[in-house]
User: What shape does this take?
Amino acid sequence: MTSSPTLIFKRPDAMSENVTHYCPGCTHGVIHRLVAESLDELGLRDRAVGVAPVGCSVLIYNYFNVDFLEAPHGRAPALATGFKRVRPDMIVFTYQGDGDLASIGMGEIVHAANRGEKFTTIFVNNAIYGMTGGQMAPTTMPNQRTTTSPAGRDVNKAGFPIRMSEMLSTLKTPSYIARVGVFTPMHIINAKKAIKKAFRLQMEGKCFSMVEVLSTCPTNWGINPIESTKWVKTDMEPYFPLGVFSDPERGDD
Amino acid sequence: MAKRLMKGNEAIGEAAIAAGAPNYFAYPITPQSEVAEYLCWRLPEVDGVFVQAESEVAVGNMLFGASASGKRVFTTSSSPGISLMQETISYMAGAHLPVVFVNIMRGGPGLGGILPAQSDYFQATKGGGHGDYRIIVLAPSSVQEAVDMMLWAFDLAEKYLTPVMLIGDGMIGQMMESVEFPDKYREENNPDEIEWALTGAKGRKARICKSLFLNPEQLEENSFLLAEKYKKIKKAERRCELYNVKDDNKIIITSYGTMARICQTAIDELEGEGVSVGLFRPITLFPYPEEELYAEGSKKNIKCVLSVEMSTGQMVEDVERIMKGKKKIDFFGRTGGVVPSPDEVKDKVRKILRIKK
Amino acid sequence: MAQQNEVVFAGFGGQGIMTAGQLLAYTAMEEGKHVCWIPSYGPEMRGGTANCTVVVSDKRIGSPIINHPYSACVFNRPSLEKFGGLIKKDGLLLINSSLIDVSSERDDLTEYLIPVNDIAVKVGNPKVANIIMLAAYIEMTGIIKFKSLKNMLTKKLGKKKDLLEINYSALEEGRKLAKKLVK
Assistant: This one.
């Protein structure tokens, strides 16, 4: 009898072998993996449909072994609504950045959440427009420099960063809404738990679910990857506190 | 099946169910809100899907998502709402997805008015949104024809994998006429039998439904694929109807939808006065029945091709293009919700022929 | 030439104007005729005049828009003012004389004054004024068979026995008066 080596780590089945185009230090790759692992572990890969956004993760469908739809900017929640309503037996998720979800797609996400559409949204908040070259986002921090706020975000003119999770959790309709980070291993473990729970709730037909993930953009922030993870902790987290804002299993809705 | 007296708006909704498309996403807008008011109770009876969306932008995109499932889906709206859906129509054309849009046209531009008009001809037939694409455009002139066209529209959308738009005016939506539906309603599609539908990557490679091609050669390839499709559509799907077309016609009128019926009455009355006028009614506006119009319009006895529209002159540009300067082209139109009367059409014909009343 | 008849029903919202037109259209359709019912729509749905046009024809109907109808049944004064002048020469005009105390002052058409509201009260329900007018119109024009209309009412009101009886009476009253007037 020969002993075969024990497999302790592998690429999730839901991920493809393509190499991502993301910049060094960007945490999109980590978040992709957490989504893929969740789909694998819940056995959902072969009945899942993802909806891609416009933004850095526009090509997300290249990195997954999952059927995908490519949405117009901000409209992913509407596409997900349409698909899920005619195929309630399938598992539908959107993957959106902050420009996509909190700016141009504000209407779609609010109404999808309010109707209690039974799909899952992964909301990646890195406080900037990445793909278009580092412009100010609705989540850009006060005084943060971007290519359209070179002197820093002026809250008197641009307002304060929008806290999407808090805002959506004010809706009366039951939902699961959590904000997580991926800037330390411990945070990654917690983020995975939240994402998996969001998919499980969809599986059970319970409610709309959204996990907001604080992410990085070393390229457009103009700092190195290590500084970037620190900046999420020191500058973003105090304004965007981590936690569960709405949970149908907590009985607070 | 027994005849029923139905409003155009309601009949259009019922026809979609008959076509195996009980999946409706919509936003209210006059003069077609009765479709939603009808389907909100009718669709649950057939286990269909009814969603009142937050905006027409969302409607379009809900259709986009739902269509990718392989099921038949549709919406109805009116001019300003259709403008908001142009984003999605462009995306769906690019992604080769079938869908049916109904535009019960009202006067524009802008918020315009709520009364019947035909001022969205350019928007419907020339693409409407950004990019190199067209959609199939059908123009019913009666409630029964609207029903028959709905059945046809879904077949066309699936045959060519393209958005199809029915354009009627407020009159078609609001009037009641007798109408018959097929005895047997079509079953809904089984997504597992559709080779492009997103059904989950089970035992096959993942499918991607998209209009994004960052590589210019690939985007060009997709655009040529679309162009090829439109060529086929132009060849196979042109439809028109001739009325009172005879060798002694002096004028041939081109007109579609409700306007064509008004012209029909004018033609009957002119015939009684000894003035012979024929009617060329395009049923498909894209593909336009170009060869047919040229054949009828260039006949020796024809002095003038007269385009009559509820607009300030849109289809007439196609008529001019098709007739290639062969005959005199004239135009008569009222717009903004003002519907030309048969008398006005008759006056225009008399004026062209220099006949004193 | 094929036979085509056009009639405008016009009055206040709530006078059963649309219903009268639809009953006529339904019945004519059942008799195998081509029919088209067109409402006025939009802001004038509230408060102002409500009107609908019914076209009944032996052949496919051309224009659904009728600028000069053959006939009109007007239920209030604004409707008389709006449509009185539009009716075709040699046409027919029925005026609800319960609410309108003037006439069209046209001598090129046939005009009858019918106090439909007063008759409706006599019959026992002010809401059947529209049915009385419709019955009179049918009796005068023969556009559809009286019996067909009665059958249609039976079909539509089937289970509401009391209402049906009152509607039958309204039909008879309208018909009786029309016979008297035409004579």
